[in-house]
Design goal:
alpha/beta, about 15% strand, 6 helices, five-stranded parallel beta sheet
């Protein structure tokens, strides 16, 4: 691995369908001297992916971790969950090009992969590319700023809706 790889700690989580691949990815990160916070799951027993997606995304959202990795069967569910959190830019990347572009143009801070879609070797290459690829900034920063503006609008809209909801008091 090149010296460009980030050394910041990574938070990682998965569901039962991706548990074996998560263990391989985690070992790969540890081998590269990257600190890993594993929030589970820790077996192949059926769990709700949304619980583990929320654990990772919330920690990236608050800034406790700069980057995270999520895995589920296809990667779709984890992507949907993670992108519900402010400041999260989760990218489903089951190929190298998507991994590189998710960092280069979108400054993705959570990598999502499908444990039933890709194998161990490809997952390792995707993680490597994702960790080594810097964000280009420039014209792409304006687009990231637009994401942040949309999050603020969504938050204000949610507050307005809450103020107009009927009370439970009857």
């Amino acid at each position: 691995m090149s010296t460009n790889v980030i050394q910041t700690p990574i938070i990682i989580g998965c569901d039962h369908a991706a548990y074996p691949l998560k263990e391989k990815v985690k070992a790969h990160l540890i081998e590269k001297a990257i600190d890993v916070e594993d929030v589970g799951t820790n077996s192949d027993l059926s769990v709700d992916y949304s619980d583990f997606g929320a654990k990772v995304a919330s920690q990236v959202s608050t800034g406790k971790y700069d980057r995270g990795i999520l895995l589920c069967g296809t990667g779709l569910g984890m992507s949907m969950v993670a992108n519900k959190f402010p400041h999260v830019r989760a990218a489903l990347c089951n190929d190298l090009f998507s991994a590189i572009m998710s960092r280069r143009h979108n400054d993705a801070n959570i990598l999502v992969m499908g444990g039933r879609v890709i194998g161990e070797a490809l997952a390792g290459e995707i993680v490597k590319a994702w960790l080594e690829t810097p964000f280009e900034g420039g014209r792409h920063q304006k687009r990231i700023d637009n994401f942040e503006n949309l999050e603020r609008i969504e938050q204000r809209l949610g507050e307005k809706l809450e103020n107009h909801m009927p009370s439970d008091n009857g």
